[in-house]
Predict the 3D structure of the following.
Amino acid sequence: MKKEYKVEIIKEGALGTILLGSSKLPLKKMEEVMNKYGNNGWDIAFQLIEKHRMLLFWSREAVIITFSRDKQ
């Protein structure tokens, strides 16, 4: 059976990163995205946290979530 995939990128807040030097990943948004896809039959296939360069001095984290399901 063939599979299909979707990728979502959820980034840390930019304002908190600039003002405080770091910020938290938005857990509520992550829950909303995962619940939305879960309700539509998607499963999490892979999850990765990476750092992105922001402007010159800052970096912020991003979560890359890959969802998969059997192709319909």
